[in-house]
Amino acid sequence: MAMVGPKRVPWFGSPFFADIWDPFEIGLPDLNWEGVDDDNRADVDWRETDKAHFFHADLPGVKKEDVKVQVEDGNILQISGERQRKEKDDTDDKWHRAERQSGSFSRRFQLPENSKLDEIMCRLENGLLSVMVPKKETEESRKNARNVEVA
């Protein structure tokens, strides 16, 4: 079967090697990826603000009960689930194209040490999974104090 377009192939040295980003270069755990197809994964955006990390995953047609968001190994955020195909494969049908993905998907991200893991919030609405990971207050943010003149 000929493949059209680029295939996502992790390579050593990539910041997305094995689909985990290790921004602090502290070493990655040994991961088991059996049963997860590299072409069948959720596309995720990760945005950081002063107060939190925000993850947005495109999961069209996926139900809330088919998605699992968890923190593993201390600080690995995992988003996983199952895409169900509603159509039945009828042997009399002639398919011209089948591009929508179905089956298991999984994404894993190493969270920074300043993450408040007990306060993670997420919601799935209109095929968009939003995960908010608040940040702990740092010494630098406490130093941003303003002196008040005493009269």
Describe what you observe in this structure.
With 151 residues, the protein is mainly beta. It has one helix spanning 139-143, and strands at 43-48, 52-58, 67-72, 76-83, 103-110, 121-125, 128-134. The protein has a four-stranded antiparallel β-sheet, with no helix packed on it.
H/E series: EEEEEEEH
Residue share in helices?
A: under 10%
- Label the overall shape: elongated
The number of distinct β-strands equals 7
Report the portion of residues in β strands.
25-35%
Label the CATH architecture of the domain at 14-24 and 39-84 and 102-131: Sandwich
Rg of Cα set:
20 Å
Broad structural category? mainly beta
The CATH C-level name of the domain at 14-24 and 39-84 and 102-131 is Mainly Beta
Q: What's the end-to-end separation, in Å?
A: 80 Å
Please give the largest β-sheet: 4 strands, antiparallel
Count of DSSP-assigned helices: 1
| Spatial order of the strands forming the largest sheet | 1-2-7-6
Compile the SSE list and pairings.
Layout lengths: L42 E6 L3 E7 L8 E6 L3 E8 L19 E8 L10 E5 L2 E7 L4 H5 L8
Antiparallel strand pairs: 1-2, 2-7, 3-4, 4-5, 6-7
Features:
single chain; 151 residues; mainly beta; Immunoglobulin-like; four-stranded antiparallel beta sheet; 1 helix; elongated
Summarize the structure.
By secondary structure, this protein is mainly β. The protein has one helix and seven strands, in the order E-E-E-E-E-E-E-H. It has a four-stranded antiparallel sheet, with no helix packed on it. It has a three-stranded antiparallel sheet with strand order 3-4-5, with no helix packed on it.
